[in-house]
Amino acid sequence: MQINPGAAEFPHRQIAAQLHARVRRGDWAPGERLPSIPAIAEMFGVAKQTVQRAIDQLRVEGILITKPGSGTYVRGTRRRLNRLSRGRYGGFRGYHADLAARYRQQLTAVGRAPAPPEVADAFGVPDGTELLARRHLVRTEEVPVEIGASWFLPTDAAGTSLERAEAFGRPLYQEAEEATGRRYVTATDQLSARQPSREEAEMLQIRPDTPVLHLLHVAYDAARKPIEVAQATWPGPMTTLTEEYKVPAPSPDPDPDPGLVLG
Predict the structure, then answer these.
(1) Would you say 96 and 82 are in contact if contact means Cβ atoms under 8 Å apart?
(2) Residue 128: which residues within 8 A CB-CB, separation 6 or more?
(3) Which has more confidence, 128 or 244?
(4) How far is the C-alpha of 233 from the C-alpha of 145, rounded, in Å?
(5) Upper half-sphere CA count for residue 154 (Cβ side, 13 Å)
(6) What is the mean pLDDT of residues 181-186?
(7) Which residues contact 169 (CB under 8 A, 6 or more apart)?
(8) Could you give the CA distance from residue 181 to residue 156 in angstroms, rounded to a whole number?
(9) Which residues contact 120 (CB under 8 A, 6 or more apart)?
(10) Alpha carbons 193 and 214: distance in angstroms, whole number
(11) 219 close to 228: Cβ distance less than 8 angstroms
């Protein structure tokens, strides 16, 4: 491994590209530890600071993960988002077993809290209005991959199971339908990219400069009134959005007007 001092690309970017290429080739498998920074610096004949910048770049891109006191490893988890929030409803309004098999969701808090602006806007209430929030953390065996919250109007949730700090043995939307007496009919998803807050970075165990993907999910009843507003935040570099859909077949040309004379 070597760098080209005469190249226009910065040395740390050259090193990052070569390390990434080795990961892609399988020289280092997911979960495998890389050589130490001094060892890599010796391989390339550069200063340790240059290698550290390369490692930092690959961490932001989601290729590597650093475990304090242990070293730098190839990240083994890449969360695949399939059709955004549609998966939470399952194919037949039931439990999505595939997601449950791959991820462990932990309820972290339940209680009244001031509504963030985007949640307040979705419900049509003033910023800071106290709503019921059910907060969660989703993990794989390795790392946290999602933090989120589901918000409900107190008038819907007061005195119901939604206020209890316990997980349900079924999807949240089914519990909410029974608790509120309102059925989920339509929903919208809004996906955006941004920098994480300090709290989000700490909970997701990412650097503060690592971008995140943020989802705002609003579920409506038949009268187009919001039942639930859900937020989910994922580390951007380790998250992919995949949606498979059918492409419409070409329409046959309409028959020409029999009364129209061509030529």
Answers:
(1) no
(2) 114, 115, 120
(3) 128
(4) 8
(5) 10
(6) 96
(7) none
(8) 9
(9) 126, 127, 128, 129
(10) 6
(11) yes
Mean of the per-residue pLDDT values of the chain? 86
**Tokens describing residue 139:** 């993990």
Enumerate the β-bridge partners of residue 232.
148, 215
Question: Do 33 and 55 form a contact (C-beta atoms < 8 A)?
Answer: no
**Residue 224 Cα distances to 125, 198, 228, angstroms:** 16, 35, 12
Phi, psi of 216 (to 5 degrees): -115, 115
Q: Quick one: average pLDDT of 40-54?
A: 93
